[in-house]
Design goal:
The chain has 132 residues and is mainly alpha-helical. Helix content is 57%, strand content 3%. It has 2 domains: 1-77, no CATH class; 80-132, no CATH class. It contains 5 helices and 2 strands. Strands 1-2 form a two-stranded parallel ribbon. The longest helix is centred in the middle third of the chain and has 24 residues, at 52-75. 8% of the residues are buried.
Length: 132
Amino acid sequence: MQIFLAIVLGLFFGFVLQKAGAANPQKIIGMGWAIAGFCPGTGVVAAGAGRRDAIVFVIGGLFGAFIFTLIYGSIKDTFIFNKIGGGTATLADTGIEKYTTLVPAIPPVLLAGGIAVVFIIISLILPGEKKS
């Protein structure tokens, strides 16, 4: 049942991304948060829509992941995998003691809300698309 739910939710998520235009790399690049014009989610959606550049992007990501699995053993004890770089830190307190909390003094809901407000303000300040 869980796999069925995951597939349905994944299809719904992909549909929404496609309809919102998130599979268009020009929109993603216009936000300034992607070099290739795709993030992993939008890349898969765009590849599913038949975009050749997205197919190359997905293949490149899979190739990079494959290379990472090959070299992981030789880099796992380096600085790359310290507490912050290794993903064992959280921004807010999650209640799980094995994770280092980077901002322990602020409740998670307030921290997330504050970040959301900052992004909303930035989106209001940035110039919009010019209609011609």
